[in-house]
Amino acid sequence: MAEPKENLLMEKIVSLCKRRGFIYQSSEIYGGINGFWDYGPLGAELKRNVKELWWHSMTRHRDDVVGLEATIIMAPQIWKASGHVDTFADLMRECPLTKKRVRADQVEAQSGIAYQFSGAKDGRIVNELFNRLMAEDDQNPVKLVVGEVLARVNDREQALTTAAALLEGNKDSTGRPWAQEVLKQLAAMPRSQESFSFLLLPGKPPESARNAAREFYAQAGIPEPILLGEDAEIIENSSDFHPESHVRLSASRPFNLMFKSHAGPIESEENVVYLRPETAQAIFAQFKNVLETSRQKVPFGIAQVGKAFRNEVTPRNFTFRSREFEQMELEYFIKPDEAIAAIFGGVTTVPESGHPGVPRPDWGWQAWHQYWVEERVAFYEGIGLARDTLGFHIQTPAELAHYARACTDILFKFPFSKPDGQGHVAGDELEGIAARSDFDLSQHARCSGKPMGVFDDELRTAWGQLPKEKQDDLWRRYYENRKKYLTTTGVADEAATSQATADANGLAKGQYIPHVIEPSAGVDRLMLALIASAYSETTSTDEKGKSDTRVVLKFHPRVAPIKVGVFPLLKNKPELVTKAQTVRDLLRSWMNVYYDEAGSIGKRYARQDEAGTPFCVTIDFDTLGEKPELLDTVTLRHRDDGRQERLAIGELLEWLRSKLR
Ligand code: GAP
């Protein structure tokens, strides 16, 4: 089996996705729109499978997680409380000529000669004044003076300025009105003192730098720019120039990634709303409602799947970084470690690698975090992403948000993933699993004024039985954590002390704000990972030496968009067609079936191989009883190795369903 090279592989994947109807560019007939993608017939099925598998494993297969389906647009105060309004930003830089923006940390280094201009002035007025004067009689005294000055300074603007200054003071008033008019017009001449810099790549003519500068100053309101203060300097490996326009970029500034709109007919500040940049916040905002209506008790989780929107500065790598995408997020609420220690006498921690097993009531945040990392890896393995295609990034203290205790990113080795200095490819983020402390619920409690705490009778009882020393220790630890949260979010010291004291007193009475572990995955990234992982090519050579390369998408049956292809051997044999359609209808209620009677069997197999269909069944004459022992059997073909076997129709459905569980 040939393994295509990385970038070539990405090109092949993009082309296959279009050709087979997995992914199309959004609005393609109008030239597309950057960062937006549509899923075609196979893509839509794959997406549905991915989301349903996640939903099943996260909610229906568990007793401790329930679902939520919230709106995309929510009260803007939610995004203020969550910190998105103030801090959800990428640093970006702008090309002053094309206005294209790039992320400050993603500008590739370039070398060349930087042409710098200190400004420009408008040549139009000078030319008009000059041409008007040249049309005068040769004996015109003003024309004679200007001609004389020009012979010395060889600059039209300077000649006009000097001549006007001379003539303005003329005793006999010859040329004085002309001089006053010229000085007035020259004083009003548009000028720019904004500097402009262009990186001339090796082999390019300097005139291209000047043309870019003229275009820039023309945009700045100087219709016929005369460039000023030209200078040139050799530049090596600089990330200061736009990769396409080669113009020096603006200083970096934060660019909020939320899409803004207005709710209602009036486009005013009070009506500003945001398209949600993550699904998580709705879960926090509805925490109390879910708790009260679902009969869940901490620890428990709330799961949500849905669209999220981020105005990414540079969408890239196909669907990997899009502006509209879907997330699958779980917020798993747990007791704070101080509550666990009070109830169980201590907090059980688990090894930092491997699955820690069935959850225990005395787990603290560390064990729950490790549990969810391993649960999520098991999910990925269960849908066909081998462990060696995954990687991990454990965020360093410097990378962690101030409130987070830990965050582990699960990575996938995409074809575009880059090797590090040692040539090791770790991969790019599929999902992040963060231990977010009680930050989110605390923020919403503070900003909405609505309590987000829970009452835990077990804690209250246990607390009463603790020795004083232990009570004091846990009280102090809880107090310090709460105070740290309050002061880092801007609460003044005195108020923070009083609130943290009240919170710690609350703990002693069985009250606390739950902490949260958040596994947050992207649907689109996972789909891309599944397609990249499934992609393979097989090359066969016929007896004449002609070779043929075929694409096979080796999806796990659980995610495959089509589970089985059903073919009558020949389409002009009604008895075969009828039986094939009966088989199709038998399977259809249980799985996605593709019925195909067009073309040779080989072509039909090839079509299903490219679609990633794991099994095909063919109805041939044997099944009609030509060989009595084969009556009511089908030929079942396995995509992965091309193996074929006979299976009784009566067993087919159960056999296929067993592969999808
Ligand atoms: N609530 C936490 C949160 O949203 P995140 O790391 O920003 O965390 C979670 O996003 C996941 O959402 C990522 O791991 C990724 O799979 C997906 N995601 C984020 N931005 C994306 C984008 N621009 N395009 C596609 N997927 C994206």
Task: Describe how the helices and strands are arranged.
Layout: H1 6-19, E1 23-25, E2 37-39, H2 41-60, E3 65-67, H3 76-81, H4 84-87, E4 89-94, E5 101-103, E6 110-117, E7 119-122, H5 123-134, H6 141-153, H7 156-168, H8 176-187, E8 191-192, E9 196-200, H9 206-219, E10 225-228, E11 231-238, E12 253-256, E13 260-262, E14 272-274, H10 280-285, H11 287-294, E15 300-309, E16 324-334, H12 337-344, H13 365-382, E17 390-394, E18 406-412, E19 428-435, H14 439-448, E20 454-455, H15 457-464, H16 468-488, H17 493-508, E21 511-512, E22 515-522, H18 523-534, E23 535-541, E24 547-553, E25 564-568, H19 574-588, E26 593-595, H20 601-611, E27 615-619, E28 633-638, E29 644-648, H21 649-660
Parallel strand pairs: 3-15, 25-26, 25-27
Antiparallel strand pairs: 1-2, 4-5, 4-12, 6-9, 6-11, 7-8, 7-10, 13-14, 15-16, 16-22, 17-18, 18-19, 19-22, 20-21, 23-24, 27-28, 28-29
Helix pairs in contact: 2-18, 6-7, 7-8, 12-15, 12-16, 16-17
The structure holds glycyl-adenosine-5'-phosphate (GAP).
Glycyl-adenosine-5'-phosphate binds at residues 278, 280, 310, 312, 321-322, 325, 327, 329, 429-432, 520-522, 524-525.
